[in-house]
Amino acid sequence: MTKRILTAVLLFVVGLCVLNVTSSLKICAFNVQSFGESKANNKKVMEILLKILSRCDLCLIQEVRDSKGAAIQALVKDLNRYNRFDKSNSYSYVESERLGRKTYKEQYVYIYRNNVLTVKEHYQYPKLEGEGTNETDVFSREPFIVRFHSPTTLVKDIVLIGQHTCPRNAMKEINELYSVFKGIYKMWKTDNVIILGDLNAGCSYVTIKGWRAVRLRSDPKFRWLIGDEQDTTVREKTHCAYDRIIVHGREIISSIVPGSAQPFNFKENFHLTEEEVDMLKLYLSLELHVWLLEFILCIGKPEPHQS
User: Fold this and answer.
1) Which residues, 6 or more positions from 4, have their beta carbon under 8 angstroms from its beta carbon?
2) Sheet containing 144-149, strands listed edge to edge, beginning at the edge strand earlier in sequence
3) pLDDT 10s digits, 184-236
4) Global pTM?
5) Which residues are catalytic?
C-alpha cells in the first residue's frame, strides 16, 4: 500500500514538472546580392526574403546597396507585418556604415527578434588604427561586429563578426579575420565568437597552399562548421563552399546543436526553377542553431540544470 501511495505521489510530481524542454536560437547569414530599392519593390523577391528571414531569430544580411536606407526599412517593416499575429515576435535591426573602396559601397545588416535578443554593443572594424587592427588595409568591406545578449541561451553574450570578402582577395581577408578576433577579444573580453558570411572560401578563390597560411584554419580553437565539401550555392552547375560559419569559444561550441549548421536551399524548399533563381538573384543562406536554456517547471525548488 505504501509503495502504491509513493508511486502515486511521484507520478503527481512528474505531472507537475516539465523537464528538459528545449528549443534553439536560429542564427542565419544571407547574401542578398545588391539589395536595394529595386529588390524591395519586387514582390516575388520580398516574398522569398520574408519566408527565409521569418525562419531566423538573427540574420546577417550582406550586400545591402541602398544609400537612402529605405530598402532595409521596408524589409523589416514587411517582416513585422508578416509576423503580425504574434505581437511579441517583432524584429529590429542594426546596420554598419556604408563600406567599400571608391564608389562601390555595401552595408552589413543584422536583423533580430526583439523578444529573444538585444544589442549590447557594436563595432565597425576600422582601417589603419595601429596594433590589432587592419594595418595592411586588407579588407574591401571591413567587418561589422555586434555583441548580442540572449537571456534564454546557455551562452548569454554572443559576438558575431560579419564579413563579405572580395573574391580576388578572399584568402588574405579570411586570414586577417584572425587579427579581428584578437582585437575584439582584447576589447570585449569574450571569446564566444561566431565569424560568418560570404567569405568566398571555395573553388577558384582558394588554394590548398593558401589554406596553410590561414590562421583561422591552423588554430584548432576555431571550429569550421561548414566544411569544404559542402555546397553553399543555389545553382545546379556550381558546387562551392563560399559561405562559412566559424566559431570560437568552449561555451559557444558546446551550446551549438550538433549538425545544425547547414546551407538552406530555398530553391529546393520553395520549389523554384533555375529561371526564377536567375531572376531573383539571391544566394543561399546559412543556418545555425544554439541551444536555449532547458526549462524546469516544477512545484518546489528543483536542482539547477547542469549543462
Assistant:
1) none
2) 118-124, 144-149, 157-162, 193-198, 243-248, 222-224
3) 999 999 999 999 999 999 999 999 999 999 999 999 999 999 999 999 988 78
4) 0.85
5) 106, 164
